Amino acid sequence: MELFAGMLAFLLALRVQGVNGQSVQMDPSKSGFVGDQVELRCIFVNSNPPVKISQVTWQKLLNGTKQNVAIANPALGVSVLPPFKERVGFKQAAVRYRPPSLEDTTIVFSNLQLSDEAAYICEYTTFPAGNRENMVNLTVFARPMTRMTLTSPTIVARAPKRKTTVATCISANGKPPSVIKWDTRLKGEASLQEYRNPNGTVTVRSNYVVIPSRETHKQKLTCIVMYRSERITESVVLNVQYEPEVKIEGFDGNWYLNRQNVQLTCRADANPPVTIYQWKLLNGSLPTNVEIKNNTLFFKGPVTYDLAGTYVCDATNSIGTRTGIVDVNITDLPINPTPENRNGSLEQPSTSAIIGGAVGGGLLLLLAAILLFMYMRRRQRTFKGDYSTKKHVFGNGYSKAGGLPAHPPIPKVLHYPDDSDDEKKPDQIGNTGGFEVSERNFDAESEDLKRPYFTVEEGESRDYEERTLAFQYDPQPEIADDMISQTDGSVISKKEWYV
Ligand SMILES: *[C@@H]1O[C@H](CO)[C@@H](O)[C@H](O)[C@H]1NC(C)=O
Ligand SMILES: *[C@@H]1O[C@H](CO)[C@@H](O)[C@H](O)[C@H]1NC(C)=O
Ligand SMILES: *[C@@H]1O[C@H](CO)[C@@H](O)[C@H](O)[C@H]1NC(C)=O
Ligand SMILES: *[C@@H]1O[C@H](CO)[C@@H](O)[C@H](O)[C@H]1NC(C)=O
Ligand SMILES: *[C@@H]1O[C@H](CO)[C@@H](O)[C@H](O)[C@H]1NC(C)=O
Ligand SMILES: *[C@@H]1O[C@H](CO)[C@@H](O)[C@H](O)[C@H]1NC(C)=O
Ligand SMILES: *[C@@H]1O[C@H](CO)[C@@H](O)[C@H](O)[C@H]1NC(C)=O
């Protein structure tokens, strides 16, 4: 750019010289910031024989109007006119000498003002050649004040949802005007206003507008102001307050009689955090054996029909109160999973599952057991099991949610001890992990439940507890004939099993 400007000046000078033999050399353009000091160069290139300089006049040209700035006269001396008197002077002291040297009449502007922006003419009056002049354009820049402000330190998300200006970015009194952009993941809109000041500067202002919500909380918002080649960024992180979003965890659809240690937990997402949790039972009062700790209802002792009802949790923060609801009903027997929901969640147990589990479960299991037994008999000579290698691992992931017991075990393999006289007598029941009730107790309590059970080696109950989250219902892969699949996904050799 400067090279180009220099070349232009040279060409201009050449042109002037070419015609007349004398030239006035100036920069074609010059710029500075408000408050800066700038030099406007003016060099007279004389010829041979030299002409006589009778006066040098600097003029400001604005809107087609010329205004004298400074004059240097070999006989009368130097004169700088108001309003430039304070801020303009000739650079070379030789201009003031008697006799002066007027070849270099460069002037210096100090404390540049916006109003100094204009074209400046440097005119040489000579004898006998007449006038020679050239011109420079002076541009004055004003650096803007840039700032970003949050509309308020915290924004409250309230219903009805409405658009809210969350941040404002201002680049004030800049010349040339800034460009404002936003960088954010927030879904919102930017508005833009430009205001032109009388002194030629421009104030650019942009508002960022979003609908405040839970999703906008903690989002980062960056304003990018581009002024000439500069890039200024400022960021804020939104703090959006919203009322609690509530759900009740802990009811897995499988609260059966005598189940132990059930609980309901009121989970709330809120900003600021929830200060009050209130539990209610619709159309009734909370059972007496319930203990409330923070946001959790602990039901002490075994499950009874009295626990059934609609539980309501009101969670309150400073923004508002929202309610979570869960319908708890009690079954008299555990619900077994059906193939459709074997993969874990029992959130919506199908009717068939409930009926199958509660009523027909026992019969179905018995049937399955007999079929399996017969099948085994056909495939092998004897079945002398050492069941210590058997592992039955059950679980559905509910224990993740607040350490609740998983739904009851799934009868995978039925087992009647060879030496048992009473084929209908149940063996032990596989318990569920995280459920801190000993299997023996459970057995004792469910002694009256005349249904077949299935085995878990007692010595493995610890091991078993650790595995409850890992149970897989996936169909067994094809395995070699002499391998027996285990419910934990592994296989063992028949030899090992049947020895
Ligand atoms: C100086 O400015 C005037 C008007 O603003 C323009 O016409 C002219 O071309 C400019 N000269 C140079 C050398 O940039
Ligand atoms: C220059 O002219 C424009 C209109 O042509 C006018 O608005 C402006 O005020 C003038 N500036 C000066 C310094 O006279
Ligand atoms: C230009 O005008 C604005 C508004 O009147 C003022 O705030 C600002 O300081 C001015 N800028 C300069 C460089 O004088
Ligand atoms: C609960 O009681 C209210 C009136 O107090 C009644 O309108 C509502 O039907 C009742 N709900 C149930 C499930 O009994
Ligand atoms: C529950 O409340 C007790 C005090 O009552 C407190 O020490 C504990 O941190 C709270 N737990 C949770 C998860 O809020
Ligand atoms: C439990 O309640 C749900 C809805 O509240 C209902 O669909 C389901 O049939 C009930 N189950 C029993 C066993 O009553
Ligand atoms: C069970 O879960 C696994 C992975 O968690 C998934 O690939 C598979 O499709 C699920 N099966 C059914 C029947 O939902």
TrEMBL record:
Which stretches make up the Ig-like domain? 35-139, 144-239, 244-331
Report the leader peptide range. 1-21
What InterPro entries does the entry give? CD80_C2-set (IPR013162), Ig-like_dom (IPR007110), Ig-like_dom_sf (IPR036179), Ig-like_fold (IPR013783), Ig_sub (IPR003599), Ig_sub2 (IPR003598), Ig_V-set (IPR013106), Nectin/Nectin-like (IPR051427)
Q: Which Pfam families match?
A: C2-set_2 (PF08205), Ig_3 (PF13927), V-set (PF07686)
Q: Which domain of life is it from?
A: Eukaryota
Which BP terms does GO give this entry? heterophilic cell-cell adhesion via plasma membrane cell adhesion molecules; homophilic cell adhesion via plasma membrane adhesion molecules; protein localization to cell junction
Q: Name one GO cellular component term.
A: adherens junction
Show the stretches that span the lipid bilayer: 353-375
Note the subunit structure: Cis- and trans-homodimer. Can form trans-heterodimers.
Output this protein's name. Answer: Nectin cell adhesion molecule 1
Q: Which species is this UniProt entry from? A: Fundulus heteroclitus
